[in-house]
Write a structure and sequence with these properties.
Length: 275
Amino acid sequence: EAVCCIKKKKSTGSLDLSEQIKEVTKESHVRAENTELMLSFQRGQVTLPQYKLLLCSLYEIYQVLEEEMDRNSNHPAVAPIYFPAELARIKSIEKDLEYFYGPDWREKIVVPAATQRYSHRLRQIGKENPEFLVAHAYTRYLGDLSGGQVLGRIAQKSMGLKSGEGLSFFAFPGVSSPNLFKQLYRSRMNSVELTAEERNGVLEEAVRAFEFNIQVFDGLQKMLSVAGNRQRQSSTDSNAVHGKTLQIPGTFSPMLRMILGLFVALAAVVGLYAL
């Protein structure tokens, strides 16, 4: 499906790389955007357990992405879009994880299998096809930069956090103007010289990057659903022992709020994608 779209765009040689990436990922974007979860994002509900779990996955993903970007910083395809001072997220995520989990936060990280697959892919292309990092960096960094301020405010309000506490991930202090920086980033990316085969590979990787992000979201949802089911089962067993009737509204509402919180997770994982 992705290859079909890419072949179609190959005949349009006038498009810059950034425009081509946006074009070939449009279908994936629309598919994610029109799910019930994404549409419900507008409700602006996020829970602390959900947000903490999301940060764990973001930590794993960005740790590998930034290690591979650093290792390949002199590669001709990576060098033009290498902006560690402006975009690097790992230190910010570590700060947030320490705020929520404490000094031993590394021992408490839990991620779905999809996060591990995503990280493995980043490690693989960093070694075998560094030019493909362009697709992942563009999708992740510019998506987060686009949605950072909005998502940060939603998360802060939803969880009742004080300004900045636990929300470092959403802040880009090294970027004074997101719009101007995105223009610079796209310009640098469009200047990367790629063969026709390499460009086609980058476009395919952009679609793959988007799919990885959606799979991570699905994995987070399943983890929270399993946790919720266990919680409800525990409540049922406890009430049975004490001869009480299970109160559905009392046990279901927190879980409902938790699932609704995943709407923010999808937006954060995929970014608002206003690239």
